[in-house]
Amino acid sequence: MSLAQLAVLIGAVYGFLGVAFGAFGAHALKARLAPDLLAMWKTAVEYQLYHALALVLVGLIATSRPSIAITNAGICMALGVLIFSGSLYLLALSGVRWLGAITPIGGLLLLVGWALLFWAALKRF
């Protein structure tokens, strides 16, 4: 399996799970979570869905214009979603506040992913 194909597959899984987690938050968690925790859940879902689409885009670009930058953009985005959204999901469900200290690491990875995508576009298109 190519890295381009893997990026599209991960993007599709993140998209599927983002819709499922969004529905779960809107229906099952709405009455169970405090408003601030529900807002965290919503933020996690939104960032996951945005980056699911970005990963599909990165994968499609990688099929026609492969580069180290585009590969690393996909890796950073995939890990960034896992850490950023994952820590917010765990925080919302558990209320354990120290998990919020992990979230910025995921956010930084997402930013690096976008910067690498910018760099790849600047150099390759």
Question: How would you describe this structure in keywords?
Answer:
single chain; 125 residues; mainly alpha
List the helices and strands and how they pair.
Layout: H1 3-29, H2 35-64, H3 68-94, H4 103-124
Helix pairs in contact: 1-2, 1-3, 2-3, 3-4
What value does the average pLDDT take?
Answer: 95
Order of helices and strands: HHHH
User: How many individual β-strands?
Assistant: 0
Our estimate of the beta-strand percent is under 5%
Query: Could you tell me the radius of gyration in angstroms?
Result: 15 Å
* Large-scale geometry: elongated
Largest sheet: none
What's the number of helices? 4
Given helix and strand content, the structural type is mainly alpha
The helix content is over 70%
Distance between the termini: 25 Å
Low-confidence stretches: none
